[in-house]
User: What shape does this take?
Amino acid sequence: MKKSAIALIALPLLLLTISCEKGKAADAANSTEKSDTVKTNTTTTTLAIDTVDFNKRMVALSNNDTTGRWPVKAPYPLPGALLPYNRIIAYYGNLYSTRMGILGELPRKEMLAKLQGEVAKWQAADSTVKAIPALHYIAVTAQGAPGKNNMHRMRMPFKQIDTIISWAKPINALVFLDVQVGHSTVKAEVEQLEQYLALPNVHLGIDPEFSMKNGERPGSKIGYFNAEDINDAIDILANIVRKNKLTPKVLVIHRFTQGMVKNYKAIKTVPEVQIVMDMDGFGSKILKKSTYLSYIYREPVQFTGFKLFYKNDNKKDWKMYSPEELVKFTPKPIYIQYQ
Assistant: This one.
């Protein structure tokens, strides 16, 4: 993408100085394989998902793609997986800032009501997939100043995470904890959130934009993750799922340029983690669709997401995409984030 195009969709800076081979899924749509179960004297324990149903849903999500890219071939998820059975509608932000997203901009009651309204719109646009709410909270923010640890990142106090989790309960929303590593690493920052990721409804987001591997100041250029960084997050999540006997975790990875995710083919797929490559960035509809086709569609990982900006997607003569428009995309995004 040209620099001028990047400027149109680059995220604002955050906070102080910165604004914000096993069974193959989707490869056998006509498979007759069903769930495996073990019967005991009193219960029936499900060991696997209904693969016929899963395959049909994945084909539908691919929107009849004929290139062979979609649906992606990957191991079937553990039972209880959120995707592709649900479409996640998330509000993004941080409680310290009204500029980083809708989550911190509006009062709690108003924000939750608005989120539920968006969930209803998505349910109406695609009745075949259940729309569910989520709060996507930036738990580690990149910083322009080095800070006392020289890591150019600030970890939010756990009491704020507790607040977000309490806000999610009344509407039965998922919680995502988002990480901007600065000069730190994915492994170091995700590990310090393990106690929260061990909760059944808490999932993870990681943002390569602010990963500065060569010592640059976050926000001075667009950073990146390589497959090893992303695999570190996947390994941590998979271990948490196995250790705590949980249903699969969802991992959201933000992306709006080619260079933000390197060596995508080496990103591992495992039954314990469901990976969403989220089309980030703001701009005109033409620019955003081009970005989706160039970096999300053409470099398939597992599932796709799409980010919408209430303010920055509605500037000039731009207009924010509607749910009805986005469900026509190939593949259909299964995770939607509003900022």
User: Anything to note?
Assistant: The chain has one domain: 3-20+78-338.
